[in-house]
Write a structure and sequence with these properties.
470 residues, alpha/beta, 5-stranded mixed beta sheet, two-stranded antiparallel sheet, 19 helices, 9 strands, 54% helix, extended
């Protein structure tokens, strides 16, 4: 370890001719002599002596001030010069690389002009089986030679269109040649279609038993008859079959007509005043947004207000589908629904696909996020209504027979349902389900949810079919 340099500074030697001046200055600093008296003693003017005194005090303050820790910083001029040198070096390297690439392009073009690489021109006349137009002077097909030269130019950094133009062919023609060359090439990938049946079955069984989590390398080591590429192909095919089988077992739920089930979900948005919540209600049979309510707090008061406004504008549905937010199950919300004889349907906990329709609609609403961020809180609801009107009236959808959601909603049939009888039926069904179904570990309202689904299905309002897509 290197020894540190000594920092001790010995006392300075005072010349004889300066001794009186130093002693006089020290007397003034000590307060035993005034500035005017010291100036008269040294035969100086008062201003001259005071200037010398101040200069000495300034040097003493500089000497006793603690130095800043660490190494001394580089001057700003040096830093700027170093940055400029680094930028020039990068630019020089880029120019050198460009020059080398240009030189390689010129060499390739020179070979083309000297006849070593002749462009393969397409003939417009009809070719016969004995035609040898594509044969070069060396017996090598001219198309393959041209394709290899184009690939070499692309490897040097040229764009596909520029490389093809250099050989007087179109880029789409080069792509077709490349596909044909791959089809003619007897690579192991094409020969691997004749894989041993028992090896394929063994690999597929491993993939199924491990739920698709095994990798191609691990599968190759488990089934030595397969290469890694073949194992990857077997895994991909097996995963496709597993996914198709899973979807075939899913139950797809459809609401037969508008006005039966209506959903409501909250959406968190930002505006000039800060974050707010927008509660959007929509029909479950057609993607028709019925109402929206904006508030700063997502609580039972906002939910009840949104439901009351929605029912006043479009009537009460038979069922309201809500998620398990605490505000959705408050006393005032249930009182409002009981007053209008509307059933409350909560989905399974932590099951986002049960509310997938509302989530997809919220994703459509996100297209207006930038517009909403520039508005104040009291302007958001009007903007939301404008967006909902455009989604309802301008978007023609395939599943609606190329109608808009507003047109499908306007042509909905009138509901003629005895709501009291429906509620009594749901209650009786729920009681029977609780007696015959073990609901331990399930949500407390599971029987209610199943009873509502059965009652709607019995009336033809709800249809279930195998084969979903979630």
């Amino acid at each position: 370890m290197a020894k540190s340099k000594p920092r001790y500074v010995p006392a300075p030697a005072v010349p004889a001719e300066m001794a009186q001046r130093v002693e006089t200055i020290l007397e003034v600093v000590a307060g035993r002599m005034s500035v005017a008296q010291a100036a008269r003693t040294l035969g100086m003017s008062r201003n001259h002596f005071q200037t010398i005194l101040h200069r000495g005090l300034g040097a003493m303050v500089t000497a006793v001030t603690p130095a800043q820790g660490g190494r001394p910083a580089k001057p700003q001029e040096r830093v700027a010069l170093e940055q400029e040198i680094a930028a020039l070096r990068r630019e020089n390297a880029r120019l050198r690389e460009t020059a080398e690439t240009s030189e390689r392009f010129l060499q390739a073009a020179s070979g083309l002009l000297q006849g070593r690489m002749r462009p393969a021109r397409q003939s417009r006349r009809r070719k016969t089986p004995s035609s040898s137009d594509d044969e070069g002077s060396e017996g090598e097909p001219g198309r393959a030679r041209t394709l290899r030269a184009i690939e070499q130019m692309r490897a040097l950094g040229a764009r596909a269109s520029d490389a093809a133009r250099a050989f007087d062919v179109h880029a789409s023609t080069v792509r077709r040649w490349r596909r044909q060359a791959l089809l003619r090439d007897p690579t192991p990938a094409r020969e691997s279609r004749n894989m041993p049946a028992h090896a394929v079955q063994q690999a597929a069984d491993i993939v199924r038993r491990l739920k698709g989590q095994v990798g191609a390398d691990a599968l190759r080591h488990s089934v030595p008859e397969l290469s890694r590429r073949e194992a990857a192909r077997v895994k991909a095919r097996t995963l496709t079959q597993m996914e198709r089988a899973r979807k075939e077992q899913l139950v797809r739920v459809r609401i037969a007509m508008p006005g039966v089930v209506r959903g409501m979900d909250g959406m968190h948005v930002r505006c000039v005043d800060g974050p707010v919540h927008a509660l959007v209600s929509a029909d479950a049979a057609v993607p028709f947004r019925t109402s929206v309510k904006v508030g700063s707090h997502y609580d039972a008061k906002l939910v009840a207000c949104a439901m009351a406004a929605d029912i006043a504008a479009h009537g009460a549905p038979l069922v309201y589908r809500l998620d398990r937010a605490k505000a959705h199950d408050a006393a005032e919300v249930r009182a409002l629904l009981e007053r209008h004889r509307v059933l409350l349907l909560h989905g399974p906990p932590h099951c986002a696909r049960f509310y997938g329709q509302l989530e997809r609609q919220n994703r459509e609403h996100r297209a207006w996020d930038e517009d909403l961020e520039q508005l104040e809180g009291d302007e958001l609801e009007a903007m939301f209504r404008t967006a909902m009107h455009e989604l309802n009236t301008l978007w023609r959808r395939r599943e609606l027979g190329w109608q808009t959601a507003a047109e499908a909603w306007d042509h909905r049939p009138q509901l003629d349902v005895d709501r009291a009888a429906l509620i009594d039926e749901v209650q009786h069904r729920a009681a029977a389900i609780r007696r015959h179904l073990d609901v331990r570990g399930a949500p407390a309202d599971m029987a209610q949810r199943l009873a509502i689904e059965q009652a709607l299905k019995a009336r033809g309002y709800l249809r279930q079919a195998l084969g979903g897509w979630c």
